[in-house]
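My convention is simple: the sequence line spells out the residues, with the fold written below as integer tokens. I include a record here:
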Amino acid sequence: MTLSAHNGADEDEIMDNIFSRFSKEGRTPSGHKTGQKLLLKDDAKIAAGTILEAAHKLKPAEVPGYLDSNFENAWAHFDQNHEGWIRYEETHTF
């Protein structure tokens, strides 16, 4: 996904599209759907890289280094209970 001349509204739309695609519906321990969309940590890292390229125009070669430097601290800030997921509603702030 490559953009030119994007603005804040474009970035919100990009994030919504990407986080929606990578989020999954939560399940109870018995496997029943909860109705709550969640973003799992591994998927969050892939989604974050996609957004960095699409919305912030980092070159593809720059994304892995940026994620290596920043992802774990950002994730820990939002996943304070160390559950391995955040709610979909938290993804834009993340």
About this structure: The chain has a mean pLDDT of 89. The helical segments are 8-22, 41-56, 63-78.
